[in-house]
Design a protein that fits this description.
The complex is a heterodimer of chains A (308) and B (348). Chain A is mostly helical and 308 residues long. Chain A is 73% helix and 0% strand. Chain B is built from 13 helices and twelve strands. The chains are: A mainly alpha (308), B alpha/beta (348). Chain B: It comes from Bailinhaonella thermotolerans.
Chain lengths: 308, 348
């Protein structure tokens, strides 16, 4: 397993180079002038443009630009955005918020998704099963922004149960509803995946053996059945961790959370490439590491998988 | 710790301790399956018994009800669709079917245990084999993890798995078919059960390994004097190890005899057909005998004797009258109106 992990980590290098180059290339080549509208109603002062062009190496060929960017990155220097704020500073401010929101969302996915999946998988066709099947279908059919605005409107504005937007201190209690909105689609998938997996494995021979061994039912289900049935759900949730970080643009926007998604979105619409590229680079890294973690976890959960 | 059972007392507890009848008695058992197509009568009044140290072979083709009977004894029948509509299963004189589930569970694995046909799917793929064997001690006896592992190694040694100590943490897929079945056996005999049910234990194995597994079972039985119910469709396996045979057809026992009696001279046309369909060296070159027709459809059982559509001894009343289990002699029984003719070998 150690060698496998090392090999996978080495494989990350070309992937990171490739993705960062693509991001760099695309963002810098977005149509439109990065300096349009930057200086109010008037066109920018040529001296300012010249200074910025110099500062960000905009006259260099793209490959040189990329090389300089990489060199800076290796020295731990994320550069400055067009406003002159160090990107590292912005990251330190927004990453904790996004991670916090993702943790809440992931917990909801695990607790509600797997919980509902297990309960309905064990007893299909009952009231709870129908309830879960219909509500997950509902969640899967609605776009995230509809659910988000709906909950904000009803719970936040009309009923006044929650604050309509999250306060800057990001208290955990205020993150529950945004976390649910962010998790809504994955909760539905996790529940259905777990349900199908439990229902299938319930008929497995090893479950019959566990019963024949005279184990109490809660041990048969909680140990023998669950361990096997969680494998698909864990794989799914792991790959979704990356998506939770990146996919929070809409949720962060609705609930006014100063997170990674919002920062990247702002960077893109203002042509602030120097801010977007490093942010997305880190996002790629998170995604890749999460995927690697899932692959390793997969081998722990299912001993039949061995990477040698 | 209500789950714990002291190591001294037998798992069934004190109830029925001084019972004088057989160790395990299945009495007129009726099991049905409720399906979309209708009610399938899988077991129609099966009666058999096993004593300590005795081996009963239950013989029959797929769908004859032999496995369903065994699953009902173990209490691992899927209900629904299965439903027990009548009969008793007495273990030391106590009817298991009337016991509450909590009591029943303590007998499962400890008093009566079972090994299955396909050990690869019957063992849990995600836990080490030693852990799975040790689980018996941890759950039934409250043994510590370390102690349970030690016992698992002892058991793996006992069923002759080479290098048990090194392999105790291996997973089922890392063993060969024969070794996996040995692990199943180790798990089943862990708590010294009084009855071991082996449901086609050698069907998934190749012939040389089959013989080793049967030898192992016979040896373990001699050592601990357990009653063994051997479910099989392989007549060759039965001959060496069984004391008595129950031949099942269409959910009923059609012949019950000692091995010697049955092999020498079967008293039911179906048993006779089975014996004649074994390939024999002295008949090399001749066409192999096969019982004509197909096994009965459990949803639409033939009237009268279930075997009548395939029977060479059939007469008119076979179509209308269900044959009782006629007493042939001693403990020998045959469910054929014309068992005398079958015994004499005069085909009708």
């Amino acid at each position: 397993m150690g060698r496998y992990t090392l090999r996978r980590l080495l494989q990350l290098i070309p992937v990171i180079l490739g993705t960062t180059f693509l991001i760099h290339f695309l963002v810098w080549n977005l149509p439109g002038d990065p300096f349009a509208g930057r200086c109010g109603e008037r066109p920018c002062n040529p001296a300012y443009i010249e200074r910025m062009t110099e500062l960000y190496n905009l006259n260099d060929p793209l490959i040189i630009q990329y090389g300089k960017y990489l060199l800076n990155l290796l020295q731990g220097n994320f550069g400055e955005d067009f406003r002159g704020v160090p990107v590292a500073e912005t990251m330190a401010e927004v990453w904790p918020n996004t991670v916090k929101l993702a943790v809440v969302a992931l917990s909801i996915e695990i607790i509600i998704g797997i919980g509902a999946g297990v309960l309905t998988g064990l007893k299909r066709g009952g009231f709870l099963d129908n309830l879960v099947m219909i509500s997950t279908l509902f969640l899967m059919s609605l776009p995230v922004f509809v659910i988000g605005y709906l909950l904000q409107l009803t719970l936040g504005l009309q009923l006044g149960i929650i604050r309509p937007t999250v306060s800057p201190e990001m208290p955990w209690s205020e993150l529950i509803v945004p976390g649910f909105v962010l998790a809504s689609l994955q909760v539905a998938f996790t529940a259905r995946l777990t349900r199908a997996s439990i229902a299938e494995n319930m008929r497995a021979d090893y479950v019959r053996t566990a019963v024949a061994k005279g184990l109490p039912r809660r041990r048969v289900v909680g140990v023998h059945l669950l361990r096997n049935s969680l494998i698909p759900a864990v794989t799914f949730l792991g790959t979704e961790v990356g998506a939770l970080m990146a996919g929070a643009i809409v949720t962060e926007g609705i609930f006014n959370i100063n997170g990674v998604g919002q920062t990247i979105y702002r960077g893109i619409i203002t042509h602030d490439a120097t801010a977007v590229v490093p942010m997305v680079t880190v996002l790629v890294l998170v995604y890749l590491l999460a995927t690697l973690l899932v692959d390793l976890l997969y081998a722990v959960l299912d001993p039949r998988i061995r990477y040698e | 710790m209500t789950e714990m059972i002291s190591t001294q007392s037998r798992p069934a507890g004190e109830a029925g301790r001084n019972y004088s009848g057989s160790l395990l008695e299945v009495d007129n058992l009726l099991v049905e399956f409720h399906t979309r197509q209708g009610v399938a009568k899988a077991v129609n009044g099966v009666t058999y018994s096993v004593d300590a140290g005795e081996t009963l072979a239950v013989l029959g083709e797929s769908g004859s009800g032999k496995s369903v009977t065994a699953q009902t004894i173990m209490g691992i029948l899927d209900m629904p669709p299965g439903r027990i509509t009548g009969g008793e299963i007495r273990f030391r004189g106590v009817d298991l079917l009337k016991l509450p589930e909590a009591e029943r569970r303590k007998i499962r694995g400890a008093g009566i245990s079972m090994i299955f046909q396909d050990a690869l799917s019957a063992l849990n793929p995600v836990f080490p084999v030693g852990w799975q064997i040790g689980e018996m001690f941890r759950v039934h006896r409250g043994t510590s993890r370390a102690e349970a592992k030690k016992k698992a190694i002892e058991l793996m040694d006992k069923v002759r798995i080479p290098a048990a100590k090194q392999r105790v943490n291996d997973y089922p897929h890392q063993f060969s078919g024969g070794m996996r079945q040995r692990i199943m056996i180790a798990m089943a005999i862990a708590l010294d059960p009084e009855i071991l049910i082996a449901d086609e234990p050698t069907t998934a194995l190749d012939v040389t390994v089959q013989a080793q597994i049967m030898e192992l079972l016979a040896e373990l039985q001699r050592e601990s004097n357990m009653g063994l119910i051997l479910i099989t469709h392989d007549l060759g396996v039965v001959a060496d190890v069984a004391d008595k045979i129950a031949v099942m057809y269409g959910g009923r026992i059609v012949e019950h005899a000692s091995v010697h009696e049955l092999y020498a001279n079967p008293a039911h046309p179906y048993a006779k057909g089975l014996l004649e369909s074994i390939p024999r060296v002295d008949q090399k070159g001749q066409e192999l005998y096969a019982i004509k027709g197909t096994p009965p459809n459990l949803l639409r059982m033939p009237s009268g004797c279930a075997f009548h559509p395939r029977c060479p001894y059939r007469r008119d009343n076979c179509v209308t009258d269900v044959p009782p289990l006629y007493e042939v002699d001693g403990s020998r029984r045959s469910a054929c109106h014309y068992w005398r003719e079958v015994l004499d070998g005069t085909a009708g």
